[in-house]
Design goal:
The chain is an all-alpha fold and about 140 residues long. About 75% of the residues lie in helices and about 0% in strands. The protein is built from 5 helices and no strands.
Length: about 140
């Protein structure tokens, strides 16, 4: 159940992030839906821990950095979600505005996706199978 929920939230967060950035934050319910989804995923990670690991084929510095970079993604996800929710309610947090945080998150997401595509194809460690629904495993 936790795995299915994490996978669902993972892809929902990506879609909502793209919708929020395309909308320019004008729709409050969309901003709040994204914030709830992102914070829900962060809550799952806090309660149950990170679902992914570096895998046996990652070695050296990349293996050592993997869990810390994953935690940094979650931190950026939560920071952007909170900033967006606060801005949607008409207030602001100190620091960068929500849109800048979400653009940074999108850039980090692109790096995250590229890294996992590399792991899945070059290392053959099945990284994409961990976070995709079972229905698409046959094409991976």
């Amino acid at each position: 159940m936790r795995r299915s929920l994490t996978i669902t939230l993972h892809w929902l967060n990506l879609m909502l992030l793209l919708f929020v950035l395309g909308d320019g934050g004008a729709t409050m319910w969309l901003s709040l839906a994204y914030a709830a989804s992102a914070l829900g995923m962060c809550a799952l990670a806090l309660v149950f821990g990170l679902m992914s690991g570096p895998g046996p084929k990652l070695t050296g510095a990349v293996r050592a950095l993997h869990p810390w970079l994953h935690r940094a993604l979650y931190l950026l996800l939560a920071w952007g979600a909170v900033a967006l929710a606060v801005e949607a309610m008409g207030h602001a947090l100190p620091g960068p505005e929500a849109r800048k945080l979400l653009l940074a998150l999108l850039a980090a997401t692109a790096l995250h996706a590229t890294f996992n595509l590399w792991r899945h194809t070059a290392l053959g460690d099945g990284a994409l199978r961990r976070i995709t629904p079972r229905a698409v495993h046959h094409i991976l």
